[in-house]
TrEMBL record:
Primary site of residence: membrane
Keywords annotated in UniProt: Glycoprotein, Membrane, Neurotransmitter transport, Transmembrane, Transmembrane helix, Transport
Biased composition (Basic and acidic residues): 341-359
Leader sequence residues: none
Statement: the UniProt record of this protein carries the keyword Transmembrane: yes
Record-level Gene Ontology MF annotations: acetylcholine transmembrane transporter activity
Alphabetized PANTHER family for the sequence: GH10249P (PTHR23506), VESICULAR ACETYLCHOLINE TRANSPORTER (PTHR23506:SF13)
Protein's name according to its UniProt entry: Vesicular acetylcholine transporter
GO terms for cellular component: AP-1 adaptor complex; AP-2 adaptor complex; terminal bouton
Family annotation (InterPro entries): MFS (IPR011701), MFS_trans_sf (IPR036259), MFS_Vesicular_Transporter (IPR050930)
Bilayer topology term: Multi-pass membrane protein
Length: 359
C-alpha cells in the first residue's frame, strides 16, 4: 500500500510541476526543489526512525508519518484546484507509455536514472553490516551514516540548477559528470577504515545523484514537448519505474553479491557500471536543438484533433501561417487578431469567404 501511494504521489506531483512550469529554467529549479525534498525523506528517514524508535517506541515513527501524510493530503485538496469536467474532456491525449519507452532518448535517460541510483539502493541494506564487521561502528554511527549526505545532495541540486540556467545545452554533460562522480565514489567506499573516512565517498555518491537527477528529469519533459504530446504523466511514470527497479533489486541482488563475492566487488561493480554508462549520455548532446513538430498529434498519434483544446491549437497554427503569408504579400497583419478564440474564428471565416479577393 505504501508503494502504491508513493507511485501516485511521485508521478503525479512531478508531472504537475513539469506542466506548471513550461520555461526550462523555472522547470529545472522547481524539479530541483522537489528532488531535494525527495532525498530529504530518503536520507533523513534512518536517523529519524531510529531516534523515535529508541526513545518513543516502534509505533511512534509510523504515527508521525501518517499524520504528516494526512495533513499533506488535505493541503492538496485545498490548494490544488482540479480541472472541471469540460476542461478535462478537451485536454490533449498523451502519448501512450509504450511509445515513450521505445523512444531512444527517453530510454537513455531512464537507464541513467536506474544506474545512478543503484549504489544508493544497494548500499543502504548492506553498509551497516559491513561497518559493524570492518570498523566496529557503533549503533549511532550506523544510524547516522546517510544523514551528512543530504547536504551535498542539496548543494548538487543548487549547482546544477545554476549551471542549467547559464548553459542549458550542457544538461547531458552534467548528468555524465554526475555518473563519473558516483562511480569514483563507489569504488572508494571499501577503502574507508573509519566513520569519518566513509562520509566523504557517501557524500560524493549523493552529490553525483543530485547532478544526474536534476539535469535529466527536466530533459524528460523537454523530450516530451518536442517529440511527443505535452502530457507528462507517462514519462514521469517511466522515471519512477526507473527508481523502483534500482530500489527493488537492492535488498535482493546486493545481499547475494555480498554473500558470494564480497562487499568490495559489489562497490567496484557499481562504480564501473556508472562510469561505463556515462558516455551513453552523449546521445543527448543535440536534444536542446530539437524543435517541436507543428503536427505532433497527426504524426505521433496518427489521428486528427480531438476536443476544443486541440481544435484551438490547430486553428491557431493555420491562422498564424495564413497571416504570415498575407503579411508577406504587403497586406496589413494584426498580431493581436489571434488573442481570443472568438476573434480568431471570425477572422478565419472571413479569410475563407473572401479568399478570392485576397488572391
Amino acid at each position: 500500500m505504501q508503494g502504491l501511494g508513493s507511485a501516485f504521489a511521485d508521478t503525479s506531483g512531478i508531472a504537475m510541476i513539469a506542466d506548471k512550469y513550461t520555461e526550462e529554467t523555472e522547470r529545472s529549479k522547481a524539479l530541483g526543489i522537489a528532488l531535494a525534498f525527495i532525498s530529504f525523506g530518503s536520507l533523513v528517514a534512518p536517523p529519524f526512525g531510529g531516534v523515535l524508535y529508541e526513545f518513543a517506541g516502534k509505533r511512534v515513527p509510523f504515527i508521525v508519518l501518517a499524520c504528516i501524510c494526512f495533513a499533506d493530503g488535505l493541503l492538496c485538496f485545498t490548494v490544488l484546484k482540479p480541472f472541471s469536467n469540460r476542461t478535462r474532456e478537451n485536454m490533449p491525449v498523451g502519448t501512450p507509455i509504450y511509445r515513450l519507452m521505445i523512444d531512444p532518448y527517453i530510454a537513455v535517460v531512464a537507464g541513467a536514472l536506474t544506474t545512478c541510483n543503484i549504489p544508493l539502493a544497494f548500499l543502504e541494506p548492506t553498509i551497516a553490516n559491513w561497518m559493524e564487521t570492518t570498523m566496529n561502528a557503533t549503533e549511532w554511527e550506523m544510524g547516522l551514516t546517510w544523514l551528512p549526505s543530504f547536504f551535498p545532495h542539496v548543494l548538487g541540486v543548487y549547482i546544477t540548477v545554476k549551471l542549467a540556467a547559464q548553459y542549458p545545452h550542457l544538461q547531458w554533460f552534467y548528468g555524465a559528470l554526475g555518473m563519473v562522480i558516483i562511480g569514483a565514489s563507489s569504488c572508494t567506499v571499501p577503502a574507508c577504515k573509519n566513520f569519518g573516512q566513509l562520509i566523504a565517498p557517501l557524500c560524493g555518491i549523493c552529490f553525483g545523484i543530485a547532478l544526474v537527477d536534476t539535469a535529466l528529469l527536466p530533459t524528460l519533459a523537454f523530450l516530451v514537448d518536442v517529440r511527443h504530446v505535452s502530457v507528462y504523466g507517462s514519462v514521469y511514470a517511466i522515471a519512477d519505474i526507473s527508481y523502483c527497479v534500482a530500489y527493488a533489486l537492492g535488498p535482493i541482488v546486493a545481499g547475494q553479491i555480498v554473500h558470494n563475492l564480497g562487499f568490495e566487488q559489489l562497490n567496484l561493480g557499481m562504480g564501473l557500471a556508472n562510469m561505463l554508462y556515462a558516455p551513453a549520455l552523449l546521445l543527448l548532446r543535440n536534444v536542446c536543438y530539437m524543435k517541436p513538430s507543428h503536427s505532433e498529434r497527426d504524426i505521433l498519434l496518427e489521428e486528427g484533433p480531438k476536443g476544443l483544446y486541440d481544435t484551438i491549437k490547430m486553428e491557431e497554427r493555420k491562422g498564424t501561417s495564413q497571416g504570415c503569408s498575407l503579411a508577406g504579400n504587403g497586406l496589413p497583419y494584426d498580431e493581436n487578431s489571434l488573442d481570443t478564440f472568438g476573434e480568431h474564428e471570425q477572422s478565419y471565416s472571413e479569410e475563407k469567404c473572401h479568399g478570392s479577393d485576397y488572391n
